[in-house]
Amino acid sequence: MVVTGSGSPSTETAQAGLAGARLQLIDLTKTYGDVVAADRVTLDIAPGEFITLLGPSGSGKTTTLMMIAGFVTPTSGQILVNGDDIAFRAPHKRNIGMVFQNYALFPHMTVAENIAFPLKMRKWSRNRIQEAVDEVLRLVRLSGYGERYPRQLSGGQQQRVALARALVFRPPVLLMDEPLGALDKKLREEMQLEIKHIQEATNITTVYVTHDQEEALTMSDRIAVMRDGRIEQVGSPRDLYERPASAFVAGFLGDSNFLEGRVDTVDGASVLITREGFRVRLPSGAELQPGEQIGVALRPERIRVGTPDGKDTVLQGILDEVIYVGDSSKLRVRVADGCYLVAKEQNQDGTRHWRRGESVHLAWNSTDVVIVSRNSQQVS
Fold it and tell me: Record's GO cellular component, any one (predicted)?
């Protein structure tokens, strides 16, 4: 493998990449007494795909990862790697790479010795081990660091050593359990791209666990959002962000405004009559019935402030708070007693400086509204 001096691995590296496996989880379940930690988790992961298990603490994402690794025994279900069921096989017989959050490097071993450890356990020859270690050190851009000890490395360098150790024996599947959690924000963002580039170059099937939404959106081919041991929704980052299937997904994957009410028809178009009494135009094609109770989500960046022209829905409110967050500002607007909507504006030259307490218009299109809950019971 050949790696460029900085940035992503070269095309030659990608062409010489590893063979990722198809990984299938079928009704994978883990219970502890009456507690269901993972509930019939089912996923079909393509060879070379990068999929992230995303969810809050207790959602079942780490339990699912540990079952794939073999450190947790499933109560029931299957784990197929290229059709071979490994669900009840010992961890060391699965040939799966694993990167932990705390790196799990041996402090008394050099970088090269740490990376070589899984190869020695597999009884590779000395020459073959040396070639493999040199190759993977180039891949993670740590050539020349082989004789150093973990304590002599930065956090990002230690993480790359842990990644190199997981890749060196060319596993068909790589598992990563919140590997960037201990890094500061800037280094974390750099490592997100570096890991993704290495994964693309090696073409290894990767299952990544995180509770960080931005990290999942940045790195993943697909994301599986988990809640209470179950998968709530699976899709590409764009699909999940722009078309969440539930209020939980919409709220967990970024910021959202939520409104509830009943469906009505005005001038042939479906509208939401909210509990506060104002009307929100709904997207066409949703096959809604008048009187049906629904909930909708609206992303803050979809709301225009002060420019109602041409928008399907326009509301007036009082600006309650302006929150400056650097590249953008969040505007919290009271549109009814006890009801607030948050809009997000990019900060740039010419951007108006809003004042707390002033009257403003909020406007958006029906295509920006996402239906996230439905109740077929009609209410008159």
Answer: ATP-binding cassette (ABC) transporter complex
